[in-house]
Amino acid sequence: MSTAPVKVGRGVRCDLDAGPLAAMVESFELHLHAERKSPKTIRTYIEAALWFAGSYLLGAGITDWAQVTRKDVQHWIAGLAARYGKSGAYASNQFRALQQFFKWYATEDPADPRPNPMAGLKPPKVDETEVPVFTAAELTALLATCKGGGFENRRDHAILSLFRDTGIRLAELAGLCLDDVSLRDREALVTGKGSRQRRVRFTYDTARAVDRYLRERARHKLAARPRMWLGTKNRDPMTPSGIYQMVCRRGAQARVEVHPHKFRHHFSHTWLDQEGAEGDLMELNGWSSPQMLRRYGRSAASARARRSYDRIMDAS
Questions:
Q1: Model pTM?
Q2: What total of structural domains would you count in the chain?
Q3: In Å, how far are 16, 24, 27, 35, 38 from 1, measured between CA atoms?
Q4: pLDDT digits (tens, 9 = 90+) for 249-259
Q5: Which residue, of 63, 86, 107, is where some domain finishes?
């Protein structure tokens, strides 16, 4: 487990050297791997515990996790909220990550139960912000940057189209293999959080875009590789980082503010705005909790209310 200085969210650079407190965090990391948590989840949870330990606890003279109190956690989270965002979202995310560590810490050894200083604590309130979605013109402009033939244009058009139609996560799209995609059925088998698999559907337009890419892909030097998205100039398959950079680059060309997760926002908002069933959206998005439904439900209701306003006021 590395304790070198790293960036923790929002570009915040911090030292994760937790000294004598690091051993317990290493045990927690082992537990997370045993639970088959995703690498991103593991990194988030581990960095939250190490940052709290190295940046606050050691400075307060605390060298044993059993010494941590509710006030220690409250002071730490309040400090994050004051320094890194008025919305409370960043502090809330750190709170929830740290909460996972203490839940494990308190129950890890049934023969030696420990106090959980976060028991009963509530995360910081997060201000509600508008869900960022695309306009029809923005989506058109974005896809227009991929006009023309050639491997790169066909690949990028297929990726952007799949993002638009399915709202799948960046890691899910990057992990697609050839056998996961059926153009005949217009379906893709994606592997989400916790290695849970689900099938998502896409439109005929996207099926055609993927088909055109696959014909170009067949001439790639690494065409025999199972991974779906290959690099340009016969390079290795694209990583999530490479796909992220491509999306941002296309956004800059179209002068559209875009990142991969914005497609997920747009898909979820549009589904509910068009009165799609909430249960179906949970299945398509791979959500195990209805928490996200509430946020997108409010966004869709707001859009419908604005349309109703125009209809009613124009008629008056």
A1: 0.73
A2: 2
A3: 10, 12, 10, 17, 16
A4: 999 999 999 99
A5: 107
